[in-house]
Write a structure and sequence with these properties.
The complex is a heterodimer of chains A (540) and B (367). With 540 residues, chain A is of the alpha/beta class. Chain A has helices spanning 40-53, 72-78, 107-113, 136-148, 166-178, 195-206, 209-225, 244-249, 257-270, 347-350, 361-367, 378-381, 385-406, 444-450, 469-486, 524-527, and strands at residues 2-7, 11-18, 26-34, 65-70, 86-93, 116-121, 153-158, 183-186, 232-235, 241-243, 275-280, 285-291, 294-295, 302-304, 307-309, 317-319, 325-328, 337-342, 415-418, 435-436, 454-463, 495-503, 511-520. Chain A folds into 4 domains: 1-82 and 208-271 and 440-452, Nucleotidyltransferase, domain 5 (2-Layer Sandwich); 84-207, Rossmann fold (3-Layer(aba) Sandwich), CATH 3.40.50; 273-437, Nucleotidyltransferase, domain 5, CATH 3.30.420; 453-521. In chain A, helix 3 (107-113) links the parallel strand 5 and strand 6 (116-121). Chain B has 367 residues and is α+β, with helices and mostly antiparallel strands. Chain B has 2 domains: 2-202, CV3147-like domain (CV3147-like fold); 225-353, CV3147-like (Beta Barrel). Chain B has helices at 8-18, 30-40, 66-69, 78-90, 106-117, 138-141, 166-179, 193-196, 204-220, 225-236, 342-348; strands spanning 2-3, 43-46, 56-64, 94-99, 121-125, 149-152, 158-161, 183-187, 191-192, 201-202, 239-251, 266-272, 280-285, 289-294, 297-301, 305-310, 327-333. In chain B, strands 1, 2, 3, 4, 5, 6, 7, 8, 9 and 10 form a 10-stranded mixed beta sheet that branches. In chain B, strands 15-14-13-12-11-17-16 form a 7-stranded antiparallel beta sheet. In chain B, helix 1 (8-18) crosses helix 9 (204-220), helix 2 (30-40) runs parallel beside helix 5 and helix 4 crosses helix 5. The chains are: A alpha/beta (540), B alpha+beta (367). Chain A binds chain B through residues 92, 94-100, 103-104, 123, 125-127, 129, 131-132, 159-160, 193-196, 299-300, 404-410, 461, 504-508, 511, 513, and chain B through 31-32, 35-36, 64-68, 70-77, 112, 153-156, 174, 178, 181-182, 247, 260, 263-264, 287, 312, 321, 323-327. Chain A: Residues 198-372 form the Hydantoinase A/oxoprolinase domain. Chain A: It holds the Pfam family Hydantoinase_A.
Chain lengths: 540, 367
């Protein structure tokens, strides 16, 4: 049995899942509780209710793992609070001065992390040769300076670190030799090419290490208090898991795990690996696409609280349509509008069918006879049913059009509906005949956390000369598989789920940028022995 | 007019439109331009008439691979050593820096180069858009020698290459670029102010800024992408060709050659939507969008600027980012007159990009 928990902005959802493999997985119990300020209390409440809901004879010892997805770290960045003072050490001189570290950061976050950076010599060329030589004295001076300023966490970045991370590791060691308690985050752990964006991601991570310690300690303590001895794992933004030791070092990898878990859970519940997922909430409708069971990711940069990062984020299109969307000009003959403003979480008190005073999309759905919630008051009943249907049809049209924009091919595309607001949608959408509403869709995100896998990824520029393509790709795939296994995947279960080859314009020698992603099943046997675990690539 | 933090974002947007799908995203170099003007103050944009006839105009452009620039961000100060080398070689003062290629990332980068070098920026460029080749500039048509090529990297390493032909210059310069780790800055077609008169594409900087401003105003006033594009077509004598959905992006492997202009080829199918329902457009692309055909007829072709706008976000879509399902508005803007002469078309017309098509001037929208 596994417990999957998703800590969202409003609700903490939890599920108890039986079965070890995808084929025999089933939901044994599911609960929804309010999220609490400290995260842990809400998680404990959810676990308590979940265990009370479990079938008779269930023992806590049967729990093999607890998977948690949380927005805690994202919120800390968005709110710019409880961030650890962080310095940036960039290895790249004499290059890279055109854009110093923290360029383009919102002033508030810049201040929150301490606005301290050092440009130092070092870094690599795209082929892995040296851009310039590391200067230990320069780094020692930076260490002395940042230590004097009371900085306890450092983000180290270097030019072409994804090709070669050695200098970042060397710099980390030099800095720690000078300042023993220093926490160091290295940019090569954040994969992708694009110095500034990768560096930004590293800085955000470095600023979250104290909060990560706090949360991990609190959660592991809470689980122990609840009598659960199973290992705790955290959801990452790409739908894979990390153990808590990795989580302490790389907390930023949890960003956007919410939408990823929700989409993966929806795909799993409906039994389709390639589909569009429409999550209709109170205020917005989020549309994403699953390819092989994983969300299609954005290709370009992603904004986190106004900071450009090259994080792997699901490609989600948001529309201002939800169950609580305000409906205007419904009966006065003008063009009826839906949203984008909404009564949001106040729907159960402000919607007409709930005795409130505001006409919402949910009320229109009730008037149209599409759903029955609340009380069908005289107010709703006097609405013209045909008019109500026309409004819903127009809304469905907008959503179908948005799904169409997310398509990658003209083939049939199953659609999975999740979220509390999905009652406003009909059972078929224009051009999308295959619409599914799986059972337990309201806790899809917690299920997504519970079924998560373990992954390994790399992003390189490699020379692919004529006739060497197969060999080069085979080597890179093997490396991605090894990374997934090192991160806790069961050997033999790891598959390559994504391979992206882009020949680089204007580069000689068949230089090609290759991204490979491998995922496998969580190796529960290994994860139970946390002491001997070796995690992925690690900073020296 | 000055470039400063207030108008650089609009300028970059205009550079992306003039990129015709190529040139690399201007948004990537915009932060470097903003940083440079924050450090050195605004960059003055000047006309040739404001400069002494016998002083030099120094074109500058990024050299190498865009995938290297995003990692090995340069200094923007490469222009300083290039200027020193150019002044020593010609034994004349440089009066202004010029953007070699306004389309795409070189647009904002030239502002950074000018700021660091302490030079004003000429309101002109070499292309009026983006092209892949060093020699695909108006100065080549005007008979200005490309040689010498002055190349620099962030370590203040400088190489001056002299060659008897554009072909040899490019061959040698590319090898220097390789030795630089595929990122550097170069200057070719250095000319006197007197020579530059009639040999460059005039007004490119102000044009890019104006395009970006029109788009920003459209967003501010809540106009749709299609009406913003219509305003651009109207103001610049162009044509809004159609509103479409991308239904296929097909690489043409057997036609690709080793030559830079034609080493990447693709055909894109566009299906008309809304008022263009029932129309089918075929788009030919390389590093940029090269031609649009409908029902066997040529609607627009290089050197005219063909740009696709994402109808939902309003952003110009670069060639590599075109994918199935995208909704786009297709805009064509006329190229500068110098490109439309036979010697210009030989260099940058459809045949220069491997297409067996003859250029015909764009039919502007009726206003």
């Amino acid at each position: 049995m596994r417990i999957g928990i998703d800590v969202g902005g409003t609700n903490t959802d939890a599920v108890l899942i039986a079965g070890r493999h995808d084929e025999d997985v089933r939901v044994v119990a599911a609960v929804k509780t309010p999220t609490t300020e400290d995260v842990t209390t809400g998680v404990l409440t959810a676990i308590g209710e979940l265990l009370a809901d479990a079938p008779d004879g269930f023992e806590r010892a049967e729990i093999t793992a607890v998977m948690i997805g949380t927005t805690h770290f994202t919120n800390a960045v968005v709110e710019a609070r409880r961030l650890t003072p962080t310095a940036v050490v960039r290895l790249g001189l004499p290059a890279t001065t055109a854009l110093p570290p923290l360029t383009g950061w919102p002033a508030r976050l810049r201040t929150a992390v301490g606005d301290r950076w050092y440009l130092c010599h070092g870094g690599y060329e795209y082929d892995g040769s040296q851009l310039s030589t590391l200067d230990p004295d320069e780094l020692r001076r930076a260490a002395a300076d940042l230590a004097a300023a009371g900085v306890r966490s450092v983000a180290v970045s270097s030019v072409f670190a994804p090709v070669n991370g050695t200098m970042e590791d060397e710099a980390a060691e030099l800095l720690r030799d000078e300042v023993p308690e220093l926490r160091v985050s290295c940019s090569h752990e954040f994969g992708r090419i694009g110095l500034l964006e990768r560096e930004n991601a590293t800085v955000l991570n470095a600023a979250l290490v104290d909060l990560a310690d706090e949360l991990v300690d609190a959660l592991t303590g809470a689980l122990a208090d609840a009598g659960i001895t199973a290992p705790l794992l955290l959801s990452q933004n790409d739908g894979t898991l990390m153990d808590v030791e990795y989580g302490r070092r790389i907390p930023a990898a949890t960003f956007a795990s919410g939408p990823t878990n929700s989409m993966r859970g929806a795909g799993f519940l409906s039994g389709v690996a390639d589909c569009a997922v429409i999550d209709v909430g109170g205020t917005t409708t989020d549309i994403g696409v699953l390819v092989g069971g994983f969300p299609r990711e954005t290709t370009s940069t992603t904004d986190v609280a106004g900071i450009r990062t090259n994080w792997r984020m699901p490609d989600v299109l948001s529309l201002g349509i939800g169950g609580g969307s305000l409906v205007r000009h419904f009966s006065d003959g003008e063009k009826t509008t839906v949203g984008p403003d909404s009564v949001g979480f106040a729907l159960p008190s402000r919607g007409l069918v709930f005795g409130g005073d505001t006409l919402t999309l949910t009320d229109v759905a009730v008037a149209a006879g599409l759903t029955r919630v609340g009380t069908t008051t005289a107010l709703v009943r006097r609405f013209d049913q045909a008019r109500a249907r026309a409004v819903l049809a127009a809304t469905a049209e907008r959503i179908a059009d948005a799904v169409d924009r997310m398509r990658t091919s003209p083939g049939p595309l199953p659609v999975v509906l999740v979220g509390g607001g999905s009652v406003v949608l009909p059972d078929t959408l224009p051009g999308l005949p295959d619409v599914r509403r799986p059972e337990h869709a309201d806790v899809a995100n917690a299920i997504g956390a519970a079924i998560a896998k373990v992954g390994g990824e790399l992003d390189r520029v490699v020379p692919i000369a004529d006739g060497t393509r197969v060999r080069v790709l085979t080597e890179l795939k093997a490396e991605a598989v090894a990374r997934a296994e090192a991160a806790g995947a069961r050997p033999g279960s790891v598959e390559i789920v994504e391979i992206d080859e882009v020949p680089l314009a204007y580069l000689p020698g068949g230089a090609t940028r290759v991204r490979v992603k491998a995922v496998g099943d969580l190796d529960l046997d290994r994860v139970q022995a946390p002491v001997s675990r070796q995690v992925g690539v690690s900073c020296a | 007019m000055d470039f400063d933090k207030g108008n650089l974002a609009a300028f970059a947007k205009g550079c992306d439109v003039l990129g015709a799908g190529g040139g690399g995203p201007a948004g990537q170099t915009l932060p470097a331009a903003l940083h440079a003007v924050a450090e050195h103050g605004p960059v003055r944009v000047v006309e040739l008439t404001e400069l002494p006839d016998d002083e030099l105009v120094m074109p500058c452009a990024l050299l190498g691979a865009p995938d290297v620039y995003v990692e090995r961000i340069g200094t923007g100060r490469e222009s300083v050593v290039i200027r020193r080398q150019v002044e020593a070689h010609f034994d004349r003062r440089v009066a202004a820096l010029m953007c070699t290629e306004v389309g795409g990332s070189n647009g904002p980068m030239s502002v950074a180069f000018a700021a660091h070098a302490g030079l004003p920026l000429l309101d002109a460029d070499g292309m009026g858009r983006a092209f892949p080749g060093i020699e695909q500039v108006a100065m080549q048509v005007a008979g200005i020698p490309a040689s010498p090529s002055v190349l620099a990297d962030e370590h203040d390493r400088v190489v001056l290459v002299r060659a008897e032909s554009g072909e040899w210059l490019e061959r040698l310069a590319r090898n220097v670029a390789t030795a630089f780790g595929n990122r550097g800055v170069s200057s070719e077609y250095v000319m006197t102010v007197d020579q530059a008169d009639g040999a460059v594409v005039d007004g490119s900087m102000t044009k890019a800024l104006r395009i970006g401003t029109v788009l920003e105003e459209a967003v501010r006033d809540g106009h749709s992408t299609r009406s913003a594009v219509a305003r651009l077509a109207e103001e610049f004598g162009g044509a809004r060709l159609a509103e479409c959905r991308v239904t296929g992006v097909h690489p043409i492997k057997n036609k690709a050659t080793a030559a830079l202009a034609t080493n990447t080829r693709r055909t894109i199918l566009l299906e008309g939507v809304n008022r263009d329902d029932g129309r089918w457009l075929r788009l030919e692309a390389g590093h940029e969008y090269h031609a649009v055909l409908e029902d066997g007829e040529l609607l627009a072709a290089t050197p005219d600027v063909i740009t696709l706008f994402d109808i939902h976000g309003g952003e110009p879509v670069p060639v590599p980012e075109l994918r199935y399902g995208l909704r786009v508005v297709v805009l064509a803007l006329p190229s500068p007159p110098s490109w439309q002469r036979p010697e210009g078309l030989a260099l940058v017309g459809p045949r220069a990009f491997g297409l067996s098509l003859d250029y015909s001037p764009l039919a502007a929208d009726d206003v």
